[in-house]
Amino acid sequence: MGDLLTGPVIAELDKRFGGRKPQETRRSLTNHFWCDLLVALAEGIEKLSEAMDQVPDHVTAAIMRCRKVEGRSPLLRPLVALAVRTAWEPIKSMIHISGVENLQRTCRILAVLICPAPENHAAVQNGALLPLAKEGLLEISKERLEQAFPADWVRRLRDDLGGA
Length: 164
Prior knowledge:
Low-confidence stretches: none
Organism: Sphaerisporangium rhizosphaerae
Protein name: DUF222 domain-containing protein
Mean pLDDT: 82
């Protein structure tokens, strides 16, 4: 952490705010700025950690709600919660490797690929297909969708996306 602060952070501050006298800018930051930064980061990390610990409960509730709304067969909440917690642990550790956006995109792509009937699954359509399409599906992806899914369903998806 010390290397981060004394390396890239100082360099960036010198570049943008140092002017001709970067030493003066650095000196002004010795009046409790660095300790404030570190304490605030620690608090932010704590809040992030707490939020990450809440993800399994949120996901479990979302699955239970989705199944009920879509009239799917009910599942035992403890079964769903166990599956979610078991899946979340390795996913949580992957966040720092691939980044939140890539991990989110991967989850969306996998949801589309493993869903037995995305054309009948509103959660997959709204939570995976639409966000992926809004990112900008490549033409080859559109062609593959047309090969894999009913033509009417792909046409309706494109219409819903304004011809995307």
